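Input set for joint prediction.
Command: fold jointly, output tokens.
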Amino acid sequence: MIDFRETFPVVIGAVIAVILQIVIAPAVELFAAMPNFITIYCLLAAIVRPTVSGPVLPFVLGLINDLCVGTPIGSSSLALVLVCFAAARAFAVLNNDTVLIPLIVMAIAAFLIELVMGLFALSFGAATGLLDALVYRALPCGLFDCVIGLLLFPLASRFLAPPSPMGSGTPAHL
Amino acid sequence: MAFHNQNKGGAFAPRVLFVVLLVVSIVLVTVYSREGEQGPLHIAQNVVSDVIAPLNFLGAGASAGTEGVADAVSDATADESTLSALKESNAELRELVAQAEEYRQEAQRLQGLLDLTDRYAIDGIAARIVGKSSTAWNQTVSIDAGRADGVEAGMTVMGTSGVIGQIASVGEHSSVVRLLTDSQSGAAAMVQSSRAQGIVRGSLEGLLFLENLEEDAQVAVGDVVITSGLGGSYTSGLIIGTVVRVDEGEGGSSATVVVSPNDDPSALEEVVVVRSVGGVEGSDAGEEDAEQ
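tokens >
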């Protein structure tokens, strides 16, 4: 049974992320690093909903990302499903209600997703080395994603976090 | 406690779903890598690219908008004493001047393209750049000409002074151009003066490298690099850029040659998709002009 009140904000957020990725991301390129709003959104959803986030959102958004930006179809969904799953589990275990844990989980996960995308780019014929992919794309893009993710974290906590099983006013993570 | 137990009891289905979606992703990537440009996944990607092309154009507007916001902030923080009573009329005049300047620059760019097509006797399709790639892993731009205008995958694309890339995918009314600077790009090229053959490749650093040169190839800084047409992927005889650095290889390895492209795609707004040069597709007709 799908809870409409819980799902609606997630879907709206996903639509906004896709539009931002297509319209805004190319305009905010910084030294060849470009944020990936779809990645950021999936990670935020995984972190603020660690116990209820499933693989469907990252899979669908990954496919949309591949269709829209021209990366090999299935590559983003594979990277997002894998890393978001790991990020959600890591956050559920490590969360101590400080900003440090989301920061660390977000940074590592964003970097891992960019790294997987880099590996796909290499396997699809990019004439470059793994070190170059790491230094010139994965690290700066991961950092960019992490910074934007942290800026949006309060918003995501406000709108995406599931209602607490103990009633309103009680933090859901407890 | 009950909540956690309930979670544990219902954890099997999400795990199965997780594995299923992973497998589906892997299957999709495998199919995508094995199917050709006419495969269903590539076609779906082209269709989506065609549909979102107008959104890319909005993105270009947003980019200009952010510059406008920066200007507005700068104006708002200016010293009040510097603002005169003629501010309104000045603003109006400035707008007119800016508009005229915009038209002048556009005319200049179009004239540049026209000169280029005349000089190389290029039969081509003029197109406007309407967007750029929204991922850092691809160096591509979208143009507003597609299959309906006669654009086909693999056609060479030129800016005002040289080759900038190749059509990677074609939609009905838009196309995606893979830039030479993309790390997946590769153009058969030669050094104009010594006729040394090689392949110009892009890189993640944004530089162009002339690779696969023979050991005794004569290359010097300032040499012009043109497309050779070998392999038929690019029309031959079109200028790519100039050699800016030559690092001699050690122990018999070939030299590393860095090429500066003639055109900076980030500064371009209009391009020409080359249908043929001198009336013959893939001819050397443009080479004499490139030598000048």
